[in-house]
Design a protein that fits this description.
CATH class of the largest domain: Alpha Beta
Number of strands: 14
Distance between the termini: 59 Å
Shape: elongated
CATH superfamily of the largest domain: Glycerol-3-phosphate (1)-acyltransferase
Number of domains: 2
Strand content: 15-25%
Radius of gyration: 27 Å
């Protein structure tokens, strides 16, 4: 039995990166004096725009092949400096979930190999910065520190890329049958067919058709695994249509503080938990954000009729009661590192009995630990009145109160200053911030009636 291990071969543009690297490299080469500033090809923006949307074409690759001649007599050292200069901008183009997926392969002992048509001197610094073990790419022939206009060793594209990968694998004792390959392009089909684990990723229309015929799952690195997309829209974008106040005529919403939520970057939204209807209230906030959210909540929320499906459509991450699995926290942390919004309910569940009426909110430390791991700002949200629409004792919300709907307030506060050293102390600070957003009646001691207590219990 062969003991050869596999490797992971990853294409660059529209696969590892969300768009073409060409404009970034061009700008870097201009800055290093390799190319004259401002001398762009006519319609180059249109060409790159078409590429970003639809993928590679033969004419586009023809330009890439001709680039070797364009680089004739130009400085190889200056080009390598341009490659280093481009790294920071290229890292910003890396797909949000790419590094998470590649790290999982790395953890299994597989080597990571960047396999791209782009020239070696330009892409090697990026590969090094991202932790790749090797690079397979087109090499420009060089004499006396300047490029000759020729390609050394073959053009790494199509069948040529498969050949280069096969040669590298043979030289390094790598089994292609045990290897993975990721690409967006139908022109990488020879490579995808050569490995044991092909991954059409952000596939162009032609590769998507081939994948359908071969029953290869279509993958994406712009969102968490398992969330589908239709023409670039995930369920969140469709669910936004349902999360409008007019879709809930049996509740009257007041939402304040939306300006406190950052428009970009990782964000933790932390809310108190009073009702299954909290999902609808927070969903209105998520819909106004205009960016996908991930929702961390107890499994029972996802088991609830109607709302459970909506919670999953929002990118929900269910947490099994009593489970010690670290998967929910890992997925939430990965979402934050990918620059996404994660909604958490620090109380973990809707309080029952007398605890529901206590003025001091108690939470678990998961939110504080996520903030510490990721550096994401924590935005508190205070919910009030959702229990009037859907008390825990009811299996469905009260949708008959159309003439006098209960008032539901959603108050969003400014980022909570956390010390990020003591999760217990940080949780106390967070819960105090959430409590401070609630109306005055929430802070008053009260003795609930038997009816009040019954409404906090699950239905029989």
């Amino acid at each position: 039995m062969s003991t050869a291990t596999g490797a992971v071969f990853v294409d660059l543009d529209r696969t590892l990166l969300r768009s073409a690297s060409g404009p970034v490299f061009q700008q870097a080469m201009e800055a290093e004096g390799v190319l004259s500033p401002g001398r762009h090809l006519p319609g180059d923006r249109l060409v790159y725009g078409f590429y970003d949307r639809f993928g590679e074409t033969v004419p586009f690759i023809g330009l890439a092949r001709a680039a070797a001649m364009v680089m004739r007599n130009r400085s190889a050292d200056a080009t390598r400096r341009a490659g280093k200069r481009a790294v920071e901008s290229l890292v910003d183009l890396v797909q949000p979930w790419a590094l998470e997926a590649l790290a999982a392969h790395k953890a299994k002992g597989l080597e990571l190999v960047l396999a791209t048509t782009s020239p070696m001197d330009m892409v090697e610094p990026l590969a090094s910065a991202l932790g790749f073990d090797a690079v397979i790419s087109t090499r420009y022939a060089e004499e006396g520190g300047r490029y000759t206009g020729r390609i050394d060793g073959g053009f790494v594209w199509g069948v040529g890329k498969r050949t280069a990968v096969a040669r590298w694998a043979a030289d390094h004792g790598i089994s292609l049958a045990a290897s993975h390959a990721y690409s967006d392009s139908v022109f990488d089909l020879p490579l995808l067919l050569a490995v044991g684990h092909p991954h059409p990723l952000n596939a162009d229309p032609r590769l998507a058709a081939v994948a359908l015929l071969r029953r290869w799952p279509l993958e994406h690195w712009d969102r968490p695994p398992g969330i589908p997309s239709i023409v670039g829209l995930e369920p969140y974008h469709l669910a936004r249509l349902l999360f409008r106040p007019e879709c809930f005529p049996y509740a009257r919403f007041t939402i304040t503080g939306m300006e406190n939520i950052p428009a970009t970057g990782p964000v933790l939204l932390a809310s108190n938990h009073r009702s299954y209807f909290d999902v609808a209230a927070i969903g209105l906030v998520a819909a106004r954000l205009g960016r996908p959210v991930r929702f961390l909540a107890k499994q029972e929320v996802f088991d609830a009729p109607v709302v459970g499906r909506l919670a999953r459509a929002l990118g929900g991450i269910p947490v099994e009661r009593g489970s010690k699995s670290s998967d929910p926290m890992r997925l939430a942390a990965a979402s934050l590192r990918a620059g996404e919004v994660v909604i958490v309910l620090p109380q973990g569940t809707i309080p029952r009995g007398a605890e529901f009426f206590e003025p001091v909110l108690k939470g678990r430390t998961g939110t504080a630990r996520l903030a510490d791991q990721t550096g994401a700002p924590v935005i508190p949200i205070g919910l009030w009145g959702t229990e009037q629409v859907w008390p825990r004792s009811s299996r469905i919300p009260n949708m008959t109160a159309l003439q006098h709907p209960p008032k539901v307030t959603v108050s969003i506060g400014s980022p909570v200053p956390l010390g990020l050293e003591d999760p217990v102390a940080d949780t106390t600070t967070l819960m105090s911030a959430i409590s401070g957003l609630l109306p005055e009646e929430a802070h008053l001691e009260r003795i609930p009636t038997a009816t009040d207590l019954a409404r906090t219990q699950p239905p029989a």
